[in-house]
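Tutorial sheet, problem 5. The two components below are modelled jointly, 674 residues in total.
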Amino acid sequence: MTDVIDSVDAAPAAEREVLVRVEGLKKHFPIMKGVFRRQVGAVRAVDGVTFDIYKGETLGLVGESGSGKSTTGRVILQIEPVTEGSVRFQERELTEVKGNDLRSMRPRMQMIFQNPHASLNPRMTVASIIGEPLKEHSDLDADGRHARVEELLTIVGLDPSHANRYPHEFSGGQRQRIGVARAIALNPEFIVADEPIAALDVSIQAQVVNLMEQLQDELGLTYLFISHDLSMVRHIADRVAVMYLGHVVELADCDELYENPQHPYTKALNSAVPVPDPVVEANRKRVILEGDIPSPSNPPPGCVFSTRCPVVEDRCRVEVPEWRQTTAGHWVACHVVATKTQ
Amino acid sequence: MSGKEAVLEVSNLTTEFHTPDGVVYAVNGVDLSLRPGEFLAVVGESGSGKSVTMMSMLRLIPMPPGKIIDGQVDFEDQDLLRLDVEDLRSVRGGKIGFIFQDPMTSLNPVLTIGKQITESLELHTDLSDAEMKKRAEELLSLVGIPDAKQRLKNYPHELSGGMRQRVMIAIALACSPKVIIADEPTTALDVTIQAQIIEIVRDLREKLNTAVIWITHDLAVVAGLADRVVVMYGGRVVEQALVGDLYSRPQHPYTRGLLNSLPRLDQKGHELSAIEGQPPSLRSAPTGCSFAPRCQYAHDRCWTEIPPLAEIAFEHRSACWWDIDNERPRHD
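Model answer (structure tokens):
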């Protein structure tokens, strides 16, 4: 799936500056068994994904549970070591950077986690949570840090006088703002947001998304926005990558992906998402997929989607489809689409 | 309330939780009515009281700390809140079926699927063993599980999340209930699996004519399913309307705010207008409208008087002191 990568440069979109280039990225978790902990197999969580993230954009990464989207985000940031493949951050190969060198790069790339109840230490005050990265990575003294923490709290819309409170004194939405403040504390260039709104109530989700958009404008941030919520991704993303069982099956500009999806999985996914409008819902045609997502420890041969695909052909069950560009900037991995467009 | 022909009628339901940290005012006078064969969606965020309302109706909340302070739940000429426990058991799982959010925790892991379906048949019908087995098979095919006969011997862990939720639906349908209460039945599922379940529910509605109360936080999921929608906030019903009216002419500022804060898959890049502020604390009894602190239309009266759920148009009720269409206070 990775061999067509050289043609990326031919795409018109390539005039834009690439901040992160992911090539043939794999992450396999070993399955151990028995007294001697012998490896008997592997969960192929991410199994060869290739995409670019342009400077200043939001790349949406969507997929269902078990698709490998969160693992992709974690491996890009080197929170987990890669199994194979490369992640270039500007011109540095992150998979080869280790120890202190990697640590010195951390301020440039940060993460916002899904669950603001679990990702903030309950025994630390907000000031120490947000101040911790400053202590580790900046030369600010205690007063300087305090001033920066108050500034950050104001930026994310919290009351700076609450700096000495503990996470449990805040609501879910406010806690996620604290998580955002921590992520932007060191002026990063790149933020991986892993389901940042999934744990929040509907009326609060828009608050956090609006804040993230506002910060992107003001600070020139680049986001990898990982989510299962296709509607919210349509709202926030510039381009969208769709993952299924460890593979990116389609990647396109946001409107193109939603209005002209090519891969049968993207089509089914789009049609499965309900719209808050009874008139639209009454007239929608749904592609209902049979069955469930297969286990990533035993993925089907050929195309990973072949077991549920409504337009499956014989070769889909044997041959892995090529990752190819159908129109400028629109990438698909599907035999059936390939035949149609040739 | 609306219509004497309701199968289930809830009035002034009030539930509190008396915890060591103080009283939580979870449900504060809820009125609901469900008509035969109707699909009623109850929409609200966490803490809106939607689940506690449903649990209170069948007295399924833990008591203590829960306490049903007031109210009446009329079902087949009986008040479920005052029925003795034996009679109530014949209603639960018999005439009123339940589907819970997480099929993994609500199915018994050490019993086969077959056993769990026949369990409620044993309790509520006098079918013979062979008849029960046949009925269980029928039910599994009804909810779209292939090889029903084989599947009856499976344990819950051998099934996927979507299949388990189908089993839950089959159990709820086992005794041909008049009413099914489904509490966030698709929230734990992936979107393609959710679409499968919604398709089955749609299909079953045509076949069975059972009345359904579907509790959800997701206005999108019920848009294509519901006949009527009830919106809850701070333990009260703030708006109820026929599905078309609720989405096209929302009258309560909260409903309107919620709809404006939702991104839509079929529309590009419109501005999301978030509802500012936080959901209400339920630690004190409401003295005015719970939404007032977040409401752009709040005026003096909203802080001191709880607005009643008043009929403002045909089949359309809203609990608000502000007439949102005419931009003036509402006088009752």
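Marking note: Residues 5-120+191-197+221-341 of chain A form a domain with the Rossmann fold fold (CATH 3.40.50.300). Full credit if you identified this.
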